[in-house]
Amino acid sequence: MTVRRAAALLAGALLLLLAACNGAPPGGDPTPSAVTPTGLKAEAGDRYVDLTWEEADGDDLESYGIYQGTSATELERVAEVPADKTTHRVSGLDNGTEYFFAIDAKTASGARSTRTAAVSATPQPAGEVPIVTGTTPSNGASNIGRNSNINVSFSKGMNLAPTVGAFNASPAIACEFSWNALGDRLTCDPASDLEPNEEYTITIAASAASADGHPMDEAYTFRFTTAAGTSPTCVFGSTNFGECLLGE
């Protein structure tokens, strides 16, 4: 064997060795990377976070890597989930701490995709879900004074800003909002008189949340109809007092 041929064989062997080290087949094409999963979402519970995502493409998919941390830039892989799963519960977390999560996909040959963008969630202790306990005007009330305030009472103190944001009126009402001292009654003071002989629908969306972080299970809706023309004169001791015009 000539020195030139021996050198050529040695060079070829080195190329094959380098290809193997880099995960590439003898033909020189790199090993295909896994496709990055999409649609990652995180939903917090009491000391846990549930992760869900869309199934990644690829016949060679073997598993998903779960990454976790208390910073979006410092994540560690904490679990490996089989490819036929698109959900994972991360348990044993501290309530009140914001956690960040990302995932990647791995092929049977060991190639990993890039990670998804990090998402976050903050576990909260279990507690009573807030509900609407009463309204003024009451649902179905009629002949309501056009200068009436609208009050919504809740079963517990509320997170004020999200609950105000959850208040919707149809037809629209420009409200000046206020709360009682306990934060469990919201008042809408209309900027101008309501329309006469109009049915108003008030909806408190499910995004309204209690002060301890629990959203409502479902939206709450009530309706009332205003009086025709001017508001009725107030009668002291009447159940409708506060929904009328004071006399001169």
What's the short version?
By secondary structure, the protein is mostly beta strands. 10% of the residues lie in helices and 38% in strands. The chain is built from 2 helices and 15 strands.
Structure description:
By secondary structure, this protein is mainly beta. It has two domains: 35-121, Immunoglobulins (Immunoglobulin-like, Sandwich), CATH 2.60.40; 132-226, Sandwich (Immunoglobulin-like). It is 10% helix and 38% strand. The chain is built from two helices and 15 strands. The strands form four sheets. It has a four-stranded antiparallel beta sheet with strand order 4-3-6-7, with no helix packed on it. The longest helix has 19 residues, at 3-21. It is elongated, with a radius of gyration of 31 Å.
Task: Describe how the helices and strands are arranged.
Layout: H1 3-21, E1 38-44, E2 48-54, E3 61-71, E4 74-82, E5 87-91, E6 99-107, E7 119-121, E8 132-136, E9 141-144, E10 150-154, H2 160-165, E11 167-170, E12 175-179, E13 185-190, E14 199-204, E15 220-226
Parallel strand pairs: 9-15
Antiparallel strand pairs: 1-2, 2-5, 3-4, 3-6, 6-7, 8-10, 10-13, 11-14, 12-13, 14-15
